[in-house]
Amino acid sequence: MNGKIITLNQFIIDRQNEFSYASGELSRLLSDIGTASKIINREVNKAGLVNILGDYGTINVQGEEVKKLDIYANEQLIAALSSGGECCVMGSEENDDIIEVNTEGVENAKYVVLFDPLDGSSNIDVNASIGTIFSIYRRISDGPKGGTVADCLQDGTEQVAAGYVIYGSSTILVYTTGHGVNGFTLDPSIGEFCLSHPDIQTPKDGKIYSINEGNYADFPEGVKQYISYCKEKNSAEARPYSSRYIGSFVADFHRNLLKGGIFIYPPTAKTPNGKLRLVYEVNPLAFLIEQAGGRATDGKQRVLEISPNALHMRVPLFIGSENMVKKAEAFFAVEAEKV
Ligand code: AHM
Ligand code: MG
User: Fold this and answer.
1) Nearest C-alpha neighbor of 45 from the set 64, 72, 63, 65
2) Ligand 1, from 211, 275, 285: best to mutate by most atoms within 8 Å of Cβ?
3) How far, in Å, is the centroid of ligand 1 from the Cα of 123?
4) Could you tell me the strand order of the sheet in which 181-187 lies?
C-alpha cells in the first residue's frame, strides 16, 4: 500500500458501483452498521470497569441503567438500522421473533438485516475476543408496511452483503458484498475504520483445527477420526496440526481466515444440529469464507444452500480452508455410510 488511508466509508462509496440494485441504500446500511459497531466497541472496552461503574441492572452515576453488553449491542444495532430508512425488518439472536420496523416510509425500505449483536459473550468476563456478525438480504415481500418472516428466511446464497466486527486486541470490521473480502481496523485516535486487510484470500490448506474437544465423547465417529488425523505425525503433510479454540466463533473464524485452518461445530448426540445458528451466525461467515476462497458445509452440503425454516435454526458446521474442509467431509461421509 502507498500509505494513503482509506476509510470504511470512503471504500464503500468507491465500490458502490459494484451493486446495481439500490446501491446508495446498501452503502448507507453498511455505514450505519459500522457506526453502531464503534459505539458497541466503546462499551466493550469498558467491560472490565463494570464493577467500578456499576453492576448490571443497577443505575450508574449518570443515572442510566447498566445493561448487559449483549443487550446493549442489540439495542444499538436495532436503533441504527430502524432509523436509517434502508432496513424493513431485522432478526437478532437476542429476539425470539423478527423485529419489525415501523418508521414512516418503511414500505420503501429495500433491505433485511440479520445479526448476532455480540457473539461469544461468555468471553466478556475474561477479556477475550467477541464479535458482532451481520447478514444483509434484499427485501422479497411487498406491501404497505415493513418486512416479513419470509424476508428473514432466505437461503444464504441470496445474501447481498455480510460481515463481522471483532473486538479483539484491535477492533476489525471485515465484510463482503460478493466482490471479495476486505478488512478495516479501527484507529481509535481518529475514530475511523481504515482499510488494513485488502482482498483477503484464505489459504487452501492450513495447520489449525478448531473444535470444542471437550464434547469428544458425543462426536460422530467420522469427526473423531478426523481429529485423530489432525493429531497424527506426518511431516510431509505438516501434521500434527495445532489445536486452537477460543469459544468465540468470530475470533476463531478470523484467525483461521487469515492463517488457514478449519473450524468445526459438529452434530453431537446432545445437539444433533450442532450449536451455531444458520441465519445470523453461519450464513454470513459462510459467504465470507467462500468469497475468500474457502469452503463451508454442514458436513454434506453447502450451508448457503440450506433453506432456513426458522429464525433460530441450528446447523452443524465445517468451515475454513478448502482442502481441510474437504478432508473432514470425507471422514464424516465414510463413517455416516456405515451407520
Ligand atoms: P453465543 O451466541 O451464545 O455466544 O454462542 C455461540 C458461541 C460461538 O461464538 C462459539 O463458537 C460457540 O458458541 C462455542 O460453543 P461451545 O462453548 O459449546 O464450544
Ligand atoms: Mg452467538
Assistant:
1) 72
2) 275
3) 9
4) 99-100, 87-92, 111-119, 130-138, 161-167, 171-176, 181-187, 192-197
Least distant ligand from the CA of 129: 1
- The model's pLDDT over 96-130, given as tens digits with 9 standing for 90+, comes to 999 999 998 899 999 999 999 999 988 888 889 99
Q: By alpha-carbon position, which residue is closest to atom 4 of ligand 1?
A: 120
- Over residues 174-185, the pLDDT tens digits come to 999 999 999 999
CA of 263 to the centre of ligand 1 (A): 12
Domains, in order of start, for the chain: 8-197 (3.30.540.10), 208-338 (3.40.190.80)
| CA 24 centroid distance within chain | 23
123 lines ligand 1 (CB under 6 A): no
How many angstroms separate the CA atoms of 4 and 86, rounded? 31
